[in-house]
Amino acid sequence: MELRLYDTLSREKRAFTPLDPTLVRMYVCGPTVYDFAHIGNARPVIVFDVLFRLLRHLYGAEHVKYVRNITDVDDKINDRAARDYPGLPLNEAIRKVTEQTERQFHDDVDALGCLRPTVEPRATEHIDEMRAIIEKLIAGGFAYVEQDHVLFSPGAMNAANGGLPRYGTLANRSLDEMIAGARVDVAPYKRDATDFVLWKPSKPGEPSWPSPGGISTPGRPGWHIECSAMSWKHLGERFDIHGGGIDLVFPHHENEVAQSCCAFHTPRMAETWMHNGFLQVEGEKMSKSLGNFVTIRELLATDKFGGRSWPGAVLRLTMLKTHYRSPIDWTAQALQESLDNIASWNDAVTPHGLDEAGSYPPPDEVIAPLADDLNFSRAIAEMHQWAKAARAGDYLAAKKLAGAADFLGLQRVAWDQAVQSCAADAEIDDASRAKFDALVAARAAARASKNWAESDRIRDELAALGVVLKDGKDADGKPVTTWEIAR
Ligand SMILES: Nc1ncnc2c1ncn2[C@@H]1O[C@H](COP(=O)(O)OP(=O)(O)OP(=O)(O)O)[C@@H](O)[C@H]1O
Ligand SMILES: [Zn+2]
Asked: ipTM of this model?
């Protein structure tokens, strides 16, 4: 079966041909480990997990290598470590934060039915490779040392002749435009506004390593060089697929391409670039900085979103109902629908006595849409058809439904329990009720004083709790706003 994938670089869906069919190589940018992952962060993990499963199916499980890194060096990690463990030396505190966050991340994505990647490299274990790439870039005239920093020069890359891609191609931006649009207050160690950091000095007490480029003081790597180094170490100079969220296209992936292609004198880093769309709340990207996020853990184990906890299979199915490149609006109503789907699938397969832990083969009717740039919703539409037939007594349809669910990682073993635990409509407790009432009142006050920004902020905060606002009229016909759990 032909696999077709959309490539961000060429902006088209193309037939996928691995560089080496005996080892298909995929790299996906992983989490920065300083806090619980939110459900937006789970989207690339789930999307590329399905692709990993598909590649294993098409090429053989032992012929696919999936690398997803762990970024364990970052300012946000340092800040969190200093805040949470003020009594400990910073390096020890950092280790505590990163080890604990990595464990939490694994528990969470395991619960979402994701397979572990073949390799999960940590940035701090690849500093030698980062230094080696930086030395190559300096030697090639693509990078320079200034005030104990090493900077990459996109201008030098585009001035070089022969065989290199032009900087800006992946993001579809021209360097000239970027220069024109650059802010005026450029850091003093940069020759050009578009130059980016490969290596920087560490502050006292921060993690540090011997620096490249003849710099005598110890330092630490920039973020982009980490992925060039880890993909090189585990997949080589060129590999098949590089993935991540759409927000990573620029600057992160653009800079990875620049570093890797200039260091290894190659025209491409990855043959296919794939990016998932945003998971959104009320039309905005779910993100830590906007504060409109709900963690995977909260969804699985608390009633923070939509007034009840949600089984991993329900979260996963909800994620798979939307094409991976389209935005998803994350609502309690969508989760409730997925829960209903799983309940009805459970009813459809249970009478046929299929082995719940057994892995039935995925039907071609599911592989075919997935091989067409991961068309999840067409695959799920097939599952609904089989459920209908299975309910009417069709054993083969039940087996196909089970096979599709197993292939998609929808954890059939947990269906029965999931359905039971969610059967009773969760009661909204008094504390939540009081909190929602207070937020609605605060929003009304903000609107009365024409503070629209605050009123929008509160609406978003409620949306992130799975609560929607309802405009209505009171007994005297005056407009009032009430709330309800989105269902
Ligand atoms: N709302 C979202 N929808 C889809 N993917 C997302 C979303 N937010 C982050 N990602 C993806 O999650 C992965 C981990 O990213 P990272 O650890 O940098 O999170 P982040 O972008 O810092 O989160 P935040 O945006 O909340 O600050 C990346 O592939 C990123 O593209
Ligand atoms: Zn990366």
From this structure: 0.97
Does residue 459 surpass a pLDDT of 70? yes
Residues with C-beta less than 6 Å from any ligand 1 atom:
29, 31-32, 38, 40-41, 43-44, 244-245, 247-248, 276, 278-279, 285-289
Give the chain's domains with CATH numbers: 19-276 (3.40.50.620), 310-426 (no CATH), 430-485 (no CATH)
Instruction: Pick from 8, 41, 285, 323 the residue to mutate for probing ligand 1's pocket: most ligand atoms within 8 Å of its CB.
Output: 41
Residue identified by tokens 């990016």 is: 275
Q: What is the pLDDT of residues 86-100, one digit of tens each?
A: 999 999 999 999 999
Q: Which residues are annotated as a binding site for ATP?
A: 288
pLDDT of residue 476: 79
Q: Whose CA is closest to atom 16 on ligand 1?
A: 31
Please check the confidence at residue 367 and state whether its pLDDT lies above 60: yes
The secondary structure of the chain, three-state, reads CCCEEEECCCCEEEECCCCCCCCEEEEECCCECCCCCECCCHHHHHHHHHHHHHHHHHHCHHHEEEEECEECCCHHHHHHHHHHCCCCCHHHHHHHHHHHHHHHHHHHHHHCCCCCCCECCEHHHCHHHHHHHHHHHHHCCCEEEECCEEEECHHHHHHCCCCCCCCCCCCCCCHHHHHHHCCCCCCCCCCCCCCEEEEEECCCCCCCECCCCCCCCCEEECHHHHHHHHHHHHHCCCEEEEEEEHHHHHHHHHHHHHHHHHHHCCCCCEEEEEEECCEEECCEECCCCCCCCCEHHHHHHCCCCCCCCCCHHHHHHHHHCCCCCCCEECCHHHHHHHHHHHHHHHHHHHHHCCCCCCCCCCCHHHHHHHHECCCHHHHHHHHHHHHHHHHCCCHHHHHHHHHHHHHCCCCHHHHHHHHHHHHCCCCCCHHHHHHHHHHHHHHHHHHHCCCHHHHHHHHHHHHHCCEEEEEEECCCCCEEEEEEECC
- What pLDDT shows up at residue 426? 54
